[in-house]
Amino acid sequence: MGCNNLVKMNFLMFLCVLMLLFNVELMNCSVSYDRKSLLINGQRKIIISGSIHYPRSTPEMWEDLIMKAKKGGLDAIDTYVFWNVHEPSPGNYNFEGRNDLVRFLKIVQKAGLYAHLRLGPYVCAEWNFGGFPVWLKYVPGISFRTDNEPFKRAMQGFTEKVVSLLKSHNLYQSQGGPIILSQIENEYGNLRSHLGQEGYNYMSWAAKMAVSTQTGVPWTMCKDIETPDPVINTCNGFYCHQFTPNRPYKPKLWTEAWSGWFTEFGKSSSQRPVQDLAFAVARFIQAGGSLVNYYMYHGGTNFGRTAGGPFITTSYDYDAPIDEYGLIRQQKYGHLKELHKAIKLCESALVSADPIVTELGPKQQAHVFYPVKGSCAAFLANYDPESGAKVLFNNKHYNLPPWSISILPDCKNVAFNTAKVGEQTSHMVMMPSNANIHQWESYNDLSAVDDSSTMSAFGLLEQINVTRDSTDYLWYKTSVRVKPSESFLHGGKLPTLIVESTGDAVHAFINGQLIGSAFGGRKARRFSFSKKVNLKSGRNKIALLSVAVGLPNVGKHYENWNTGILGPVVLEGLDKGRLDLSKKKWTYQVGLKGESMNLASPNSASIVGWMDSKIVLPKRQPLVWHKAYFDAPEGNEPLGVDMHSMGKGQVWINGVSIGRYWTTVSQGQCNGCSYTGRFQPLKCQVGCGKPSQRWYHVPRAWLKPRRNLLVVFEEMGGDPTKISIKKRSVSTVCAQISEYHPSIKSWKLDTVESYGRTQEFRTRPKLHLQCASNQYISSIKFASFGTPLGTCGRFEQGKCHAPTSNSVIQKRCIGKQRCAVVITNSNFGRDPCPNVLKRLSVEAVCSFRTSTHANQTIIHN
User: Fold this and answer.
1) pLDDT at position 236, please?
2) 3-9+20-255 and 358-426+729-861, same CATH topology
3) 56-60, 642-646, 716-720: which has the minimum mean pLDDT?
4) Of 374, 383, 384, 382, which is closest to residue 412 (Cα–Cα)?
5) Phi-psi category of 256—alpha, beta or left, where left has phi over 0 and alpha has psi -120 to 50?
6) Res 451: pLDDT
7) How do beta strands 527-532 and 455-458 pair?
8) Pairing of strands 38-40, 43-45
9) Are strands 291-298 and 253-258 parallel, antiparallel or unpaired?
10) Nearest to 478 by CA among 437, 436, 433, 510
11) Distance (Å, whole) CA 588 – CA 475
């Protein structure tokens, strides 16, 4: 929102509160809808929204994230409500710290933004157990997300608890607050169709229950075409232009426009080109869409054990416009910001008129909106993924790149094209800090592999039934006696231990020695461990450590899915053949010894006899705790801990869990990526052959100035002395822009007046470079005004090049945090190639400040 809109919105909120205090009828404090859009206080709106999940960042980050979202052109913030963090045990609620939903929403309100509260309470979200608390699984007679009375009672209780809390703080728009929409359930359509009548009954009940809470704002359900009135059904996906609401009087809303994709341990990451994302959004708007929500706008971090899946990484970066650490991701952020400006110029037309669609070519269309006589807005689309097109519209020719849409707020001048990215590219790196980690000490948890146990039973028990998800770890222990006469003891073939598991990982120990590990996958719920074992004569101890990597978050009745070692567990190759151990007596130990002693806590870190890590590390032992101390790094850059030298485990800072780490090498096909054509996660992969996640976000708010405790539990054997704290910052910035030319419509006018809004157009293009706020431009790696080739990091001079290019950019930009250079021949001395459309390409190096420089200098010509 612009400043005027912010003042107007805050005034309306103030007015609504006054009316409430004096019992005046709330005629202007309302949210409703018609087929065109939401109506907020009687006014139709195009809403640009972005998902920011409050538990995936810290309260100290929230205001900065929300203000960056606002500056990026967003009108609203979207968040799930996470049942399992708010009600960790029945009737015991937690709305503090990262879970302070009220505080988060009040920051949204303070910024002058709206909110869409996706209450669920099922959220999916790659979150542990889909957002449900694990205790819910053990409510007698319960069955999740169906026409089941125990589940519906629990769900209604939590829903009403949240609604009541938010009402008590006047956070709904009907009370003058920011919440304009609420969502009940989440992506229910596929499950409903599988469940039949029970699914339909439950969906209808959920909708009725939600409406009965009387929030004064509409409710939504995403991805369910059977959504009953008055709840609005909405779309989620990479593309939603073909989506149609299930009633002609409902607006077309896109609750999840996927900005990227989540990352799994062992898999490469996926990056969605911003040109394609902008194209998808513009295509949805031209087809009558009136609300777009980016999922995610800031993805954040799955701190602690909150990641679900299983096998979802601790990072939930999602290739979002604001990265995991809270830094702006360019070009995605800036290009979408320009898209939002162009859409807002067309807002009055979009919400007032239906488009007239005309064919401009075999794969080209114009969507034209005529709200009143003599005015119009147009979207010119080229759906061809291979070729650009020159189209004739309103007696003028327009060039459309492949797979792109041009937005013309006045049906004449191009304000934006989805494929033409004019924003700089910022390259982020993890840079060394002055946080020296010292005094590494270690403690071996293998002492827990003994006869102690929490319980014993004949047969193999399901893991979550035993642990109640209080830990990732469950020991299965038994023993087997080997006769002295066994042939393998006298030179014969060794027997083989075979373990069938439905867990996520297994570490197998024979007589206290690790013999090997095996791992499952997010889609493979069963896997096998098989290893030849060298047993001894007499009693042999078999200990299997089953490890969870997050509980499932999606699937039909996933509350009934099994986890852990359910067998069979057998020894093959003995003289009598196959020995099935599955039904033997097993002892069970919940969690690790170090967990029971709370070794990650600063208050408990010294209760055991820690050893100098130099003694322990050469043996590369598994199941070892490591601890060390470090001082907080200077500066205010976001921080990450580099875990590349470790294997798999968990890490804590000052007793707070950063999350699970696993440096397994990612698999995939990283073959480059074109923005054209339909996107899907396997199309644009990056990071193949590298750890799925190497750096783990350390919030600065968790640090003290001195002596911060770093604790690591390593399952497989790693070298903690190579762990380091890094600063995340911009290393280089690149920008490209073409010079003015009469045929480029978007450079021709100073301003365009459109339905009460004014958009400023640049009479001469400027190239902008900007480092992070605590950095400055220290050198120019490349600069060429002419016909340079290549992309950021791989620029080359073309046949046409102005020799003064580098010196001009150095003069205007060196030593500054940001600069802007006008693209004209005179700025570079002379025209290096007359009658050729030229461009300026620059790559600049950003460095940390070591002396005082001008903070915000822009060179205007």
Assistant:
1) 98
2) no
3) 716-720
4) 374
5) beta
6) 55
7) unpaired
8) antiparallel
9) parallel
10) 510
11) 5
Beta-bridged to residue 258, according to DSSP, are: 295
Looking only at the bridges linking them, the beta strands covering 232-237 and 219-222 are: parallel
C-alpha angle with apex 685: 682 to 686, nearest 5 degrees? 165
Q: What is the pLDDT of residue 566?
A: 96
Instruction: Provide the CA 615 distance to its chain's centre, in angstroms.
Output: 40
Catalytic residue among 185, 256, 347, 559: 256
CA trace torsion 228, 229, 232, 236 (10° rounding)? 10
Q: How far apart are CA 396 and CA 438, in angstroms?
A: 69
- Letter string b/e over residues 593-629, b meaning 16 or more CB atoms within 10 A of that residue's CB: bbbebebbebeebeebebeebeebbeeebbbbbbbbb
Question: Is 637 labeled as catalytic in the residue annotation?
Answer: no
CB 772 within 8 A of CB 855: no
Of 667, 652, 684, the C-alpha closest to 265 is 667
Q: Which carries the bigger pLDDT value, residue 177 or residue 609?
A: 177
Instruction: Using alpha carbons, select from 582, 502, 104 the residue that is nearest to residue 298.
Output: 104
Taking the C-alpha atoms of residue 268 and residue 664, their distance in angstroms, rounded to an integer, is 11
What is the reported pLDDT for 385? 97
Q: Which is the catalytic residue, given 63, 160, 187, 486?
A: 187
* 271 CB burial (10 A radius; 0-12, 13-18, 19+): buried
User: How confident is the model at residue 774, as a pLDDT?
Assistant: 79
DSSP state of 43: E
Closest to 423 (Cα-Cα) out of 328, 493, 490, 359: 328
CATH topology (fold) of 358-426+729-861:
Jelly Rolls (2.60.120)
Model pLDDT for residues 422-468, shown as the tens digit of each residue = 888 988 899 999 999 988 999 999 865 565 668 999 999 999 999 99
CATH domain 437-443+596-630+638-722 topology: Jelly Rolls (2.60.120)
Superfamily per CATH, domain 3-9+20-255: Glycosidases (3.20.20.80)
Model-level pTM? Answer: 0.91
The CA distance from 582 to 570, in Å, is 7
In the structure encoding, which two tokens stand for residue 421, read together?
Answer: 């990215």
The architecture (CATH level 2) of 460-583 comes to Sandwich (2.60)
State the Cα–Cα distance between residues 600 and 747, nearest whole angstrom: 59
